[in-house]
């Protein structure tokens, strides 16, 4: 599940996101705040259809960490473990395939990547509790995340309002818009990175916030399991080779 990100400041995420998109020059690390899972649907809508996000097949990956692989009690880690976990989720994923394909086409995001995030975040719904919730927070006495893509609803984290049913197309739209937002944030933060590197950085930011992505070599340094973008990339490559 997703780690809690930095607390919100007095300036709303929406205001900062709108300011970013209106800016015509690349943002530097000093001028790009850490925006975890902000409510940015309106600010990014309109750019998602025209921007390219790289080729998921060409993204470098080391796959799942040993910690992540133990979720399925696997005796190995790496790409092989990521592929096995993606395969394990395949039957459940098929229930949502038509929605995933439509959402991917709508936002210009590879459906295989959406499927991979669903696999990593909720095991295609298998890990969700109480009608679609995940990541229980005992301090809040509430869940932190909602739905197949585990949209962060923690007021001290992403601060999103859950949209649609936990497995609805509306929910997948929301999660994918958040992903696109972070890919764009990373692209502005690191304009010299390749499209594939920016894509991987955006995947990591979906989990940890863009402020915690400080270098390509340490892209997963702060992510859950220390492998989020590598594991998701490897799962996406498996789904890409298996009908998505």
From TrEMBL:
Pfam families: SLT (PF01464). The keyword Hydrolase applies. Keywords: Antimicrobial, Bacteriolytic enzyme, Glycosidase, Hydrolase. One of its GO terms (cellular component) is extracellular region. Coiled coil: none annotated. InterPro entries: Glyco_hydro_23, Lysozyme-like_dom_sf, Transglycosylase_SLT_dom_1. It catalyses: Hydrolysis of (1->4)-beta-linkages between N-acetylmuramic acid and N-acetyl-D-glucosamine residues in a peptidoglycan and between N-acetyl-D-glucosamine residues in chitodextrins. Residues 104-220 form the Transglycosylase SLT domain. GO terms for molecular function: lysozyme activity. One of its GO terms (biological process) is defense response to Gram-positive bacterium. Its EC number is 3.2.1.17. Belongs to the glycosyl hydrolase 23 family. This is Lysozyme g. It comes from Pleuronectes platessa.
